[in-house]
Structures are given as structure tokens and as C-alpha cells.
Design goal:
Layout (H helix, E strand, L loop, with lengths): L12 E6 L11 E9 L3 E5 L5 E5 L3 E6 L5 H6 L3
Antiparallel strand pairs: 1-2, 1-5, 2-3, 3-4
Length: about 80
């Protein structure tokens, strides 16, 4: 992974989808939270309750990052 590629996305809400072999029966296929920090080995997200979750890149299939609201969304308050 390129150094600093996630730097501009810190403090943004993300959804981390787990690799298929990391999902057990009855477990969620993804985790959501605010991107808190990252390293070459994994991602640290802050959940809504304030707890921190470390997710190693070996368990990640996809990282979805919500875009920042555009000017129209900011002006009108719509999402």
C-alpha cells in the first residue's frame, strides 16, 4: 500500500468489508466506524460507542469511504 494513501480520509466514516474466509456464521460481513488511524498492517476504526477496533489488512476485502458532502448538500442540508 502507498504510504499516506489513507491520510486524507482520517476522521471519515468508513465501512470495512471482511474477506469471505474471515466471516463466520452469524457474524457481520462488515464493520463501520470513523477511520481513526492506520499502519502498513491494518486499520483502526472508532465505533459509534467510542470503542476502537483494529482490523488487519489480511482480513479486509474492501474499504468503502463515504464522500464528503458537495456544496449543494452542505447548502441544503440534504444527503
Amino acid at each position: 500500500m502507498d504510504d499516506g494513501i489513507l491520510e486524507e480520509y482520517l476522521d471519515r466514516y468508513v465501512r470495512i468489508h471482511f474477506a469471505p474466509d474471515m466471516i463466520g456464521q452469524g457474524l457481520s460481513a462488515y464493520a463501520e466506524g470513523k477511520l481513526y488511524d492506520y499502519s502498513p498492517n491494518g486499520i483502526l476504526i472508532e465505533e459509534r460507542d467510542g470503542s476502537l477496533d483494529y482490523i488487519p489488512f489480511s482480513a479486509v476485502r474492501l474499504v468503502q469511504i463515504k464522500p464528503k458532502p458537495g456544496i449543494w448538500e452542505r447548502l441544503t442540508g440534504s444527503s
